[in-house]
Design a protein that fits this description.
heterodimer; A: alpha+beta; Butyryl-CoA Dehydrogenase, subunit A, domain 2; Butyryl-CoA Dehydrogenase, subunit A, domain 3; 3 domains; four-stranded mixed β-sheet; four-stranded antiparallel β-sheet; about 55% helix; globular; B: alpha/beta; Rossmann fold; nine-stranded mixed β-sheet; two-stranded antiparallel sheet; 6 helices; about 25% helix; Acyl-CoA_DH_CS (chain A); FAD (chain A); flavin adenine dinucleotide binding (chain A); AcylCoA_DH/oxidase_NM_dom_sf (chain A)
Chain lengths: ~375, ~260
């Protein structure tokens, strides 16, 4: 068992780190303050292939493994969690399901422009009445001749208005089990931004990741070609769950990056900040807290990297993804909260990055499956 | 078109500088990067490749660890990489280095050779022009802009108080300034490809038309008496005077030093 990165991954990390420090970090505060989607950064990431890292070269991607992609999201999130989630939602939630469940024609038509970054992707499962409980979903799709007709709305959609291609999960039939209970059956669809009847609702004003474009999607007799059904009809729920397994690894990487970024700033700050005639880093209280945070961050990193490796080598990786996301997200929240505390009054001021990081960390415990959902997945596996 | 870019692995100035007992740099103990002027030279070559198509080969002389900068160059888009490494070549000054690199270049076909102006460790700016001298090639140093014009290159050369625009027929050698361009980042896929490629390794015996007496520490006319970290200057003299007194004081000091 070898826990050291090989030279190839080490070089990739250096690339992501340099890019993040030079191109992303200087904009992070402004992106948060203005809540403006960092389009300029996305264009630069497109130029250097960051929008299709784990996608095979034959489909316009970079041909790297999930670990390389995870390190990209991690390094971006160290300086700007908004930028991290843009890449994560695009890659894990939009490209990945088309690569996994798409027909050769769908891959050629959609994966190539997404992997080169020419187009941006999004994924729409959540509805106002259906978060963790997918059975609450109301969005329906009905086949009408050669077209599917979608009606309903989706909410909290990352990359919302900025995306060009959307994976949309909708109810396509309702069946009854032996006891007469109704069960909704879902299907997955690929929807182009310019599909007739597709529009955007309100933009969400969020606590954190404020530059990320989070919108409501509205489908009013939205017509899409029959061939845009992704995977088999009725398989939408399992497609969504499989997609979220991958997505959780991306969010775990985002959470890991936030925690690492906050810890790095904390080490710098506590060495500089003087109280009672010496730096606060010289106080044992600070040292113990730094040590606890460092151990926890390292543990999160091992879980996240293990999940990335599992995605590369295993057919199913729900358990690894759930453990990584649960632990990394809670680490991000705990570490950023502690770091704000160590910064004291300055930690509460928006001029210092750690205030933003604490706000950004919270969402990692909620989206793509709350921490409670991750615990359900893990426990379900233990007791199966 | 064939372009060879000579690059060097240099200590990262962000890390600490460490010396061997003989006064030369202990390169194995330091973090290393691609020399910035060389990186600009590589970018210039890659832009020519993007525009009109060219085969770009990167060449470095150094310890086996110098392979890292060659991989970086491949990940940026270079096609081939050559590492010249041999114990007998160690401790080389600019003369022995340029002799070695010229010996390696004699094995290659090229239209254009690009080197950086100077490396941030030695800061001599001698190796590029010396290579040209060994190979009997025209050289244009301090290039801030490079344009191709048929079988010639038009170079904007930085001079003390002006620019020179020079047209030179290929094959020729150009030394690049970091101001030449903004080098591109690697790409993730480029990195993966770079590690699938073979790096050609050459030793002393692969060098063409060179004399052992001109190689390595023994072949280096430069002898390093002593090397050390930069010594910090003191705070200087501080005086607190009003405007008139300050002028008199300053004029007095300038006269004292025979400046006025």
């Amino acid at each position: 068992m070898d826990f050291t990165l090989d030279k190839k991954h080490e070089m990739a990390r250096n690339l992501f780190k340099e890019f993040a420090e030079t191109e992303v970090k200087p904009l992070a505060q402004e992106v948060d303050e203005t809540e403006v989607f960092p389009r300029e950064t996305v264009t630069k990431m497109q130029k250097y292939g960051f929008m299709g890292i784990p996608v095979p070269k034959e489909y316009g991607g970079q041909g790297c493994d999930p670990l390389t992609y995870v390190m990209c999201v991690e390094e971006l999130s160290k300086v700007c969690a908004t930028t991290g989630v843009i890449v994560s939602a695009h890659t894990s939630l939009c490209i990945d399901p088309i690569m996994t469940f798409g027909t050769p024609e769908q891959k050629e038509k959609y994966v190539r422009p997404l992997a080169t970054g020419e187009k941006l992707g999004a994924f729409a499962l959540t509805e106002p009445g259906a978060g963790t409980d997918a059975q609450g979903a109301q969005t329906k799709a009905v086949l009408d001749g050669d077209e599917w007709v979608l009606n309903g709305s989706k909410c909290f959609i990352t990359n919302g208005k900025e995306a060009d291609v959307y994976i949309v999960i909708a109810v396509t039939s309702v069946t009854e089990d032996k006891r007469g209970r109704k069960k909704k059956n879902f299907s997955a669809f690929i929807v182009d931004k310019d599909a007739p009847g597709f529009s955007f609702g309100t933009k969400e004003k969020k606590m954190g990741i404020r530059g990320s474009s989070t919108y409501e999607l509205i489908f009013e007799d939205c017509r899409i070609p029959k061939e845009n059904l992704l995977g088999a009809e009725g398989k939408g729920f399992s497609i969504a769950m499989h997609t979220l397994d991958g997505g959780r690894i991306g969010i775990a990487a985002q959470a890991l990056g936030i925690a690492e970024g906050a810890l790095e700033r904390c080490i710098e700050y506590t060495k500089e900040r003087k109280q009672f005639g010496r730096s606060i880093a010289q106080q044992q209280n600070t040292q113990f807290k730094l040590a606890d945070m460092a151990a926890r961050v390292e543990a999160a990193k091992l879980l996240v990297y293990k999940a990335a490796q599992a995605k590369a080598t295993q057919k199913r990786y729900s358990l690894e993804a759930a453990k990584a996301k649960l632990f990394a997200a809670e680490t991000a929240m705990a570490v950023t909260t502690e770091v704000v505390q160590l910064f004291g009054g300055y930690g509460y001021i928006r001029e210092y990055d750690v205030e933003r990081m604490m706000r950004d960390a919270k969402i990692t415990e909620i989206y793509e499956g709350t921490s409670e959902v991750q615990r359900m997945v893990i426990a379900g596996n233990l007791l199966a | 078109m064939k372009i060879v870019v000579c690059i060097k692995q240099v200590p990262d100035t962000k890390g600490g500088v460490k010396f061997n007992p003989d006064g030369t740099l202990d390169r194995t103990a330091m973090l290393a990067i691609m020399n910035p002027d060389d990186k600009a030279g590589l970018e210039a070559a890659l832009r020519i490749k993007d525009e009109i198509g060219a085969e770009v080969t990167v060449l470095t002389m150094g310890i086996p660890k110098a392979e890292d900068v060659l991989r970086e160059a491949l990940a940026m888009g270079a096609d081939n990489a050559i590492l010249v490494t041999d114990r007998v070549l160690g401790g080389a000054d600019t003369w022995a280095t340029s002799t070695t690199i010229a010996g390696a270049l004699r094995n290659l076909d090229y239209d254009l050779i690009i080197t950086g102006r100077q490396a941030i460790d030695g800061d001599t700016a001698q190796v590029g022009p010396q290579i040209a001298e060994h190979l009997g090639l025209p050289v244009v140093s301090y290039a801030e802009d490079i344009k191709l014009d048929g079988d010639s290159v038009v170079v904007k050369r930085q001079f003390e108080d002006r620019y020179h625009e020079l047209k030179v027929q290929m094959p020729c050698l150009i030394t690049a300034l970091s101001e030449l361009n903004e080098p591109r980042y690697m790409t993730p896929g480029g990195i993966w490809d770079a590690f699938d490629k073979d790096i050609t390794i050459w030793g002393r015996n692969d060098l063409k038309d060179v004399d052992d007496a001109d190689l390595g520490l023994k072949g280096s006319p430069t002898k390093i008496a002593k090397a050390s970290d930069k010594v910090r200057k003191g705070a200087g003299e501080k005086v607190n005077l009003d405007a008139k007194e300050s002028v008199e004081y300053l004029v007095g000091k300038l006269k004292e030093k025979h400046i006025i």
